[in-house]
Automatic annotation (TrEMBL):
<feature type="domain" description="Lipid/polyisoprenoid-binding YceI-like">
    <location>
        <begin position="25"/>
        <end position="189"/>
    </location>
</feature>
<feature type="signal peptide">
    <location>
        <begin position="1"/>
        <end position="21"/>
    </location>
</feature>
<keyword id="KW-0732">Signal</keyword>
<dbReference type="Pfam" id="PF04264">
    <property type="entry name" value="YceI"/>
</dbReference>
<dbReference type="InterPro" id="IPR036761">
    <property type="entry name" value="TTHA0802/YceI-like_sf"/>
</dbReference>
<dbReference type="InterPro" id="IPR007372">
    <property type="entry name" value="Lipid/polyisoprenoid-bd_YceI"/>
</dbReference>
<protein>
    <submittedName>
        <fullName>YceI family protein</fullName>
    </submittedName>
</protein>
């Protein structure tokens, strides 16, 4: 019997390891996820704003060093802190949100160190144009949520892109720098029936 016990125990151990190394799905918390941006204003100052509504999910296998990200942003929720500028930005002269109501980022988590990704390699769709864009992850952490007692992850990431490549060249004739820095602060809870419903 002993010679059969070791293979059986080994098989059970491998099965348990495979079960714990499974991909985990996290749902973004809209109340704690605010994509924001920084843009030049004729070399005089830096305009900053954010988007108030977004959704998405993160898939993560920390042991294997794999995962993916999807963030969908409601472009109509742009917020400069100035109503007149918000109204202009959603209009035809810039985002044209009637035709392009959403911006999306989809990418693959990469450059894992100690179970945490250091970048996202993906594609950004804005104003109906899709281009490759790599996000640098400045901070990434997962831990039990102090209130809900379930797995909880958060990250800060950023990238800079040329907005004219997305057909957003308003102000170029006045000398505005077309580079925009996109920053995404994100928090996400492990997917459950409750998070899926919300």
């Amino acid at each position: 019997m002993t010679r059969y016990r070791l293979p059986a125990l080994l098989a059970l151990s491998l099965a348990a390891t495979a079960a714990t190394a499974a991909e985990v799905v996290y749902v973004l918390e809209p109340e704690h996820t605010f994509p924001s941006f920084e843009a030049d204003h004729v070399g005089m100052s830096t305009w900053r704003g954010k988007f108030n509504r977004s959704r998405g999910e993160v898939r993560l296998d920390r042991e294997r060093g794999t995962g993916s990200v999807e963030v969908v942003v409601d472009a109509r929720s742009i917020d400069f802190g100035l109503d007149a500028l918000n109204d202009w930005a959603i209009g035809k002269d810039l985002l044209d949100t009637e035709r392009y109501p959403e911006a999306t980022y989809r990418g693959t988590l990469a450059g894992f160190r100690d179970g945490a990704p250091t970048r996202v390699e993906g594609e950004f769709t804005l104003h109906g144009v899709t281009r490759p864009l790599t996000l640098a992850i400045d901070r990434f952490n997962c831990q039990p949520h102090p209130i809900f007692k379930r797995d909880w992850c958060g990250a800060d990431a950023h990238a800079t892109f040329d907005r004219s490549e997305f057909g957003l060249d308003a102000g170029k004739e006045y000398g505005l720098d077309m580079d925009v820095t996109l920053r995404i602060q994100v928090e996400a809870n492990i997917k459950t029936e409750e998070t899926e419903a919300s």
